[in-house]
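User: Run a structure prediction on this.
Assistant: Running it now.
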Amino acid sequence: MNETNLIIQNRLREATVSLERANLIICDETWKCDSSVPPFSSIQLVMQGEGTICIDETIHLPLCIDAKDPKKAEQLFLDLVHSVRQDDIFSAMKAKQAVLNLLCYYLDCCPKDSVSLVAQTFDSPLSDAISYVESHLNEQITVQQMAEAAGYHASHFTRLFQSRMGISPGQFILQKKMETATQLLTSTDLPIAAIADSLGFGSQFYFSNFFKKQTGMTPSSYRRLYLRAYLES
């Protein structure tokens, strides 16, 4: 995955949502909002006319897309409005989940390569640091080593990486190790000890504790669960 896609992935991974309001408005075919700039992020299902979406100031999304399944899109909006109108103690949580479901569907409907970063100047040395991590996952990688690969002092590198990637260098290292671990657990029959060794963990015990902290289950349990789901699908 290239640097730009990694940044987008991490921005979306760390995204939080809060719903301010949700309404159903009936508009005719002349409705437009070309010159309107709402003071909040908004997402609308427009059956006639045109609409806009603004989710993150650093991520560029298409202003208007065609829903793959308009009925599904409509139902997602109805679920959202319904969750807002509830008054039970879980309504706020349900509303957040409804927003995320809607956002995921929107992104799923975006044309290929239409989601991108707003034009910025990125330091190519960051790519060197990312490449260093990806090629040294079998070692115990430090932030200092990443900084040296990028040619920066560690403190400056940490601030730069955090601002550009949305996560700290340390979190990025753990994220890459975790992604590789799940891939090896689900696509190979390598022993847990071999996977732990290939990712630079001192022991299978340390790796298992790390994995359980991230997923809530041991590597063995995760592998069994994936295999069961695969066989049942």
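The two ends are 28 Å apart (CA to CA).
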